[in-house]
Amino acid sequence: MRRLSLLLILLFWFGCAQDSASSTTNHAGSSPAVRDGETKGASTSTGAGGLAATASSMAAGGAELGSGSAGVAAPASLPRVDGASGSGAMGSAASADADGGVLPQDATVPPALPAIPAGTLTAGTWDDNLNYKRFTSYRKAHPKTELPGLLPFDDQEFDDANAAHAQSQVAHTKLDIALLIDTTGSMGDEIAYLQREFTALSAGIRKAYPNADQRWALVLYRDTVDIYITRWFDFRTDGSDFNAKLAAQGADGGGDTPESPEKGFETLNQLTWRKDPSVARLAFWVADAPHHDASAQAMADAIRSTQANDIHVYPVAASGADTLTELSMRSAAQLTQGRYLFLTNDSGIGGDHKEPEIACYFVTSLTDAISRMVDVELSGKYHEPTAAQVLRTGGNPQDQSCELASGKAQVF
Fold first, then answer.
1. For the packed helices 155-163 and 132-140, what is the interaxial angle rounded to 10 degrees?
2. Domain annotation covers residue 37
3. Residue 124 located in a structural domain
4. Counting Cβ atoms within 10 Å, is residue 69 exposed (0-12), middle (13-18) or buried (19+)?
5. 241, part of any domain
6. Straight-line distance from the first to the last Cα atom of the chain, in angstroms, rounded to the nearest whole number
7. Domain coverage including residue 339
8. Using an 8 Å Cβ cutoff, are 127 and 412 in contact?
9. How far, in Å, are 30, 118, 264, 408 from residue 398 at the CA level?
């Protein structure tokens, strides 16, 4: 009996030691992999029980990146998909097919494209931190009485972000790039072209920066009534695998105009981002619709967590974007040290694109615009597009600025 008791004590001690060692390893920079997966929408649940099960699933397991900004609760950890393995530096070894083939096939198939090459979509760019007084005036011109879904940020938050802007311009040698994409039905006119653009971009960036250690991730979101609310493919270094995951997605659902971008941001924050200071963390948020008015607080909190995780958000406003969408996107970009990108009508692709409420800008291909954003993040230096890249201008920008009746505007 004494020997048996001693054996049980030793086994208990050994188990505790193993748990402690595992915990220590995780906190040293190797948290459990988030893996790939999705959170189901109401259309695939059996009612409140199904949604409650999803919430319960999100509360258990998965990896957390950080606790977010002060006073903001960290998003629940992501549920894992059985058979999947993550490819992040914080997780376990990479898998060429990280979702393990368990994700359901999209109900919609990306439409066949005409013979239009990648690089056809056109876009302008704008940096509200370089034009902060104008940004402040722009925000004041759109009060909550006009926009009930206005994100509840206070002036001090924007002031603090602008004060930190100069310190954010540093060179990096590694890239973590995530695409955050609205895949509801209204995106159907452009999503197939955007998929082609980003597939070519990921290959082009790898070719242009062969010495930069690059990883790519994908987060898709719809709305709570759809087949899924969010679907994600965590960071991977295998470019062909990333491109295959991106190409397999379709646009469907939504119904009303607002969607659930706050859920997309919550998932974005839980990916296995590397915390190394040499890593540039970029998120390209592609969307054409805002959040629901009732989700304004959750959306603001999710953006605060993105800011706290030092992820630079680069929104890309697609056709149909309205005033609340533009203001929300520009707020996210300003707070996180990103820049605002907007698709234009110059390409002739998709529906009508909103003329942005900015003073003047360059129009280039979307490929050139995003490549320039990546180059700025890697080099830590601003530069204009080359003359050959400029398709047209809004206003009359010269030498990175334009003269207006209200004063000079800094063009990016």
1. 170
2. no
3. yes
4. middle
5. yes
6. 78
7. 120-410
8. yes
9. 48, 28, 38, 11
